[in-house]
Amino acid sequence: xxxxxxxxxxxxxxxxxxxxxxxxxxxxxxxxxxxxxxxxxxxxxxxxxxxxxxxxxxxxxxxxxxxxxxxxxxxxxxxxxxxxxxxxxxxxxxxxxxxxxxxxxxxxxxxxxxxxxxxxxxxxxxxxxxxxxxxxxxxxxxxxxxxxxxxxxxxxxxxxxxxxxxxxxxxxxxxxxxxxxxxxxxxxxxx
Length: 191
Prior knowledge:
alpha+beta; 5 helices
């Protein structure tokens, strides 16, 4: 095979990089997620878009406002409450920005899972670090599982959370107290 000349390599590199000078591969930091406008918008859109979740709210709490109050989900406050929240690395990625938090409640995590695809890193019962790429969002699961997902709109005893595992195509669960990291990525779906 003939050796390529430096001129050819330089021209090829220039062509590949053409137009990329203004492209940024880093997202801007959107700020703290807890109490952000994005969090408020995400949670309020759920009550309008998910009929099964609306029924769950109405049947168990009467209204969405009662649900937020009873579950102590105060979307305009970013203060850690040890009676409600768990400490973990929380990241929310949107198309343009990344939001961070150091805590989340079980019910907030469920609301995030209802909003899209999430990656959860946790310690399992055998003390192994595991990862689930999952969701409670109806568009990502088989039709036959849609009714079952309503069983996971609330944490199970011990703040155990159920979620549809997208890789294994079955229901999985994890404990909030053993969760290390939570990521919801609206750009690619999976971390």
